[in-house]
Fold this protein.
Amino acid sequence: MLELRDISKTYGLNDDRKSTIVALEDINLAIEEGEFVSIIGPTGCGKSTLFETIGGLVDPTSGSVLIDDDQIDGPDPRVGMVFQDHSTFPWLSVLENIEFGLRMEGVPKDERRERAKEMIDLVGLGGFEDANPTELSGGMNQRVAIARTLVMDPDIILMDEPFGALDEQTRLILGEELLRIWRETGATILFVTHNINEAVQLSDRIAVMSARPGLFKQVVDNDIPRPRDDDTMSTEAFNDIVQRLWDELKDESKRGMEQKANENRATEEEVTMG
């Protein structure tokens, strides 16, 4: 189980720390083994900060992240991460990119090649082992990034807008592929997205974050039967959940836009006075 317990995060805006921004406040959530949970929220609400905190890249100001009751104080091998920017290495082949983490851990060449090839088959990149990432589309590069995470055999996969930079058609295809991979691996997935339809299509539960300071305003259960195909997305049940989420998110999005506008005005005033 992944548990977020009373997580808060405050950033100082200058060296003397007199001005601060509260990015996260009292975040609590328990995610069961094998569950698929999405997080949605307005721009600037702290979704990425929360993602980095869970991944051990950022320390919370208070609170804790626990995996099976063990507190996480930094990057943990049980947690894999996939970002919107696939960050493939252009000087390495697809196969070499996927086995890179295993190589850094000193896994023997034959073993890491075998494991990398299994992941290539799993994500549908068979035949592209020797291709250079610069020769691949954005969607194919994201498959490489997913395979590079999966090959490390994490129990929990954190995905921060992994399809955000892709066109809608590719996004839908990779969403279906991700569900297949999730079923085959049994991993726990925490998925950050701005796309409400995507969250409903993929998830067991959807957590709605408020505008800053980010906290979970609502966690919505998604009882729509799987598998969820194109026909499912046109059903009344699907649209009811989408509308419910939008009703929760709409006011927070407006509040987030107002916060950003006020911050921009304050910055302009500081520049003018300076």
Summary: The domain at 1-78+155-165+174-259 is CATH 3.40.50.300 (Rossmann fold). The first strand starts at residue 2 and ends at 12. Strands lie at 2-12, 20-31, 36-40, 62-67, 70-71, 79-82, 156-160, 188-192, 205-209, 216-221. The radius of gyration is 20 Å.
